[in-house]
Amino acid sequence: MMWLLGAGLVLLLITGVVIWLYLRPRHPSLRRRTARRPHPALEPFLQPDPDRAEVDTALEPMPPRPPEPEVEVAAAEEDLPAQPELPFDAVRDEGPESPPEREQWVIVLHVAAKEGVLEGDSLAPALAEVGMVHGPMSIFHHYGVGELKSGQPLFSLANMVEPGTFDPAGMAGLRTPGVALFMRLPAPRDPRLVFELMLNTAERLAGRLDGRLLDERREPLTARVLEEIRQRLEGVSG
Is the pLDDT reported for residue 133 higher than 90? Predict the structure, then answer.
């Protein structure tokens, strides 16, 4: 009886070791830093954060996922009726004629440091001086002046570095190559007036911070680019 009991204990011990080996973490020392992703609306105005890029490249890449077998669908597709092609401007229903859609457009201006970076200690008071208020999406917004005031942001300002946001509590330690001002059309007020207000705000910021005023391509803002924007806004507003 004793040898049967001893054999049972040995078998139980072996089973426990096997279960522990199966359940233990494969890579207990590997901890990935979860990167904060920018809001989708800000991605077009951002450039990669070099500090985060260094961390990402140091992480071990995950093994590629094996390809899934392709499903044979050719025969099933042959039994389906052909889908008629719809014109680009097709009306979705038979009801009253829908009003024409208003043009969707984003106008972007940049204020960048001439050399080095913009310091948060200088940026924070400059933003307050030109009427920018921290708000939704953790970026700054302008709600207009005088008769142009609105309950919705007329234009906004984001950090040029991912994720594009600002932490009011950490502005003192902020260092960034620049900021992006952008307005969306349709706008809550006359877009021509909103653009002129945004341009004036960008010019004041550039002067206050000794920065450069750039267009959406981050090239020097020229009179020709301004004229093209104003002409297009005339077409939208007319």
Answer: yes
